[in-house]
Structures are given as structure tokens and as C-alpha cells.
Input
Amino acid sequence: MLVCKFGGSSLSSEDQFKKVKKIVESNGDRRIIVVSALGKREATDNKLTDLLYVIHTHAKHGISYESLWQEVATRFMTVKTELRLTFDIEAALSRIKADLDQHLLSVDDLVSRGEYLTAHLMSDYLGFNCVDAKDVIIFNASGDVDFKTTQAKLKAKVGTAQVVIPGFYGAYPNGKIKLFGRGGSDISGAIVAASLKATKYENFTDVSGVLVADPRIITDPPAISGLTYEELSELTYMGANVLHEESAHPVRDAGIPIHIKNTNDPDAPGTLICNGTESAATESKVVGISGKKDFLSFTLYKDHMSTELGFLEKALEIFSRYHVNVEHVPTGIDHVGVVVEKASVAHCLEDLVDVLKRELIADEIEIKDGIALMTIVGRQIIDDATFLSRVFAALGTARINISFIAQSPKLLNMIIGVKNEDYITATQALYKELIRCVY
Ligand code: ASP
Output
């Protein structure tokens, strides 16, 4: 049995619904369908989820939301009318609107209705049952998914039926609805796949898999045919955003492969993500490049730092006290760098510097802004005597200065820091040297 999740762009209009139906009906194993809410039909369009968030804010502040609500209703009504569906969406919409007008809905209640109504329309269209996520995806009191209960509920509710389940939300045991973070339908799909022991988790989106590089920087980059979960994490953590970062965990733990496929080109091979290296279909030692801008580094200077026991521990504890996640810690003899996302220190920069200075008795603290981090994910980089020289030559020829380098202990990837303004050129230079030649 396959669990298939369709993202918002795969569900943006009646034409997209038709493509989904064709995909589902082309393979009888596709019997558990998880859906996002209607997405954008074109670049200037609104995502249903975004509209619902804005409507809730308007309602909270007493600002009229009639025209926004009309936009939501029209999107659903158009799909219903064009596909000649019977689900009474008019009644469902009026109930939600009445509750909204009386301020009875939390943000999570209202926003989850995007997925809920989309699932009802899709189940009507496919002739499948609709199973409400609030009855099967269960959170515990601390807000984490209660896997045991979720699995039991899913098994009982789904059985051998063909079902559509709305993604993005679940409920506490008392029935109160809770959303995952943005893009969370990927997580819902992974939880359903792991709980029902699917043979594969198919994640349908609008690109033909995880791309070797950012398509906003590289024209038409190819998709990576095979990836391990570890390689996927490295790429998504550093900016490749095909799949929600957290969605790999449930399926990876259950040993279920994820297959990322394109709703608009279902015959394209897509990207298969598995445990181990059996997915390593590419000939290239470099699997992909991704990156993010806007990191900041603190360089802490102190004489004899390297012989002061516990110095690093104390420094890192201060960052964690301010809830700042540390990305990298390049070290010297009497100085150490701490690299963090700039946004993560926006709320506390001055305080943090004061406390670091005082508690560490640091001689000096230097702050460098505007750093972009790039990761080059590869296989057996360590065995390739030419790899590093090619990286440095590519960046050197492009006149790009490297501000720091880190290699993962497993030598799965290499991280390079460059200036924000060099990020695009660096990506292009590395792509040309390490990847383009292979495809
Ligand atoms: N519709 C939600 C969002 O836009 C969840 C999802 O699409 O996964 O974030």
C-alpha cells in the first residue's frame, strides 16, 4: 500500500484535481491520500492557508474580512462546480463563517479548515472515504505526536479502505485542533505512512524531485535520482526546501522510502530517498549543493583559551540560555568562532555580547555579519584526492574568498562560508565545476 501526499500546488484548481485523480487511479496501491489546502494557481494568487491566517488576524482585530472570506468560498465553490461534486461545501462554509463571526475559532481551528474542506472535495471526487485528521493524528499534552495512539486510531479508522486524510493538523485527546508548522502536511503524510506501514511514501509536488541546486540560481538543475535520509537532511537543513525537514523522521525510523514526484509530470523518475546507499543512483560523488544567506559569526578572543578547561562549554551554555541555536564552532588557539543565524540573535544581540564578555572574561568579541553558508553534499568525498582542490580552484577562479570551512565528521558534506554578496556566484562556480560536468 502506498501513502500519497499531494501539496497545495497539486490541488490549486479543478485541473490539478484531475491530474491527481489520474495519478491515484493509475495504481491500485495508492489508497491513502493526504492533502494540503488549495495552493496558488499562478504566482500572484493566494494560498488558501495564507488567506485563512489573514482572515483570523482581521477577525481578531475587528477588521472586516468579508471580501477575503468570499475569495476562500469562491475557490472551493469553483472546484465543486467544475467537477460536479456533491459534497455540501456551502453548508460547511456557512458553519465555519458563523463560528468565525462569533469569535469561536482559534487560529488552528480556522486554518485547519483549508485542508479539511480540500480533503472533503477530493474524497468526493475520488469516491474515497474522508477521515478527519483530528480523529487519527493525536498529540500528547506537551504538543508532540502520540505515535502509539495515532497508529491505533489510524489502523482502526482506515483499515483496508481507500481514504483521503487532511494534512497539517491533528488534535489533542480532548479534540482541540492543533496545527503542525507551515508545510506540515508533509509531516502528516509521513506519520500516516509510518503508522500504517506503507511500502512507500509518495510525496507529490510541483518539481520532479530534490534538485541538485537552487533553481532560482541555476537554470533547470536536474533532479537527484537517489538520496539517503542523511543526505536529504543536510540539503534541506541548508535551504533545499522540497520537503519539510521534520517529515523524514517517522518514515526513516520505519524504514519506508520517500519518493518525491511531480504531479505535473508523473512519469519523471523523481527522487527516491532510502536508508543506506542503495538509493545512490547518480554517478556523481557530489549529490547536491544548497545554501542560505544571513548568518553571523561571533569571534571570542581570550589569551590561553585553549588551556582553560570548560571554556567552550561555558560559551555555548550562554548561547543556549538565549535560545540561540549554534550552527558551527570553528576554533583557533586563543580564539573561537560561533556561527549562528542572524535572525536568531535579533532579540538579544546586545545582551548576549555583554554576558559573553562578562562571564567568559573575554578579551574581545568580534562580530561579522552577512555570511552565507553553503553545503556540498557528496559521497565518499574523503576518497577523492581531487575534491578539495576542485572546490578551492572553482571558488578561487571566481575570486571568491572563503570565510570558513567545516567538514562533517562523517565526511558526508562540506560547509563553506562566503560573503552574502558572493553566494550566487559561488553556487554557480561550484555547480559548474562539481555537478554540471556529470549530467
Ligand atoms: N497548507 C499548509 C501550508 O501552506 C500546510 C501544507 O501545505 O503543508 O503551510
User: Anything to note?
Assistant: DSSP finds 13 helices and 16 strands in the chain. The mean pLDDT is 93.
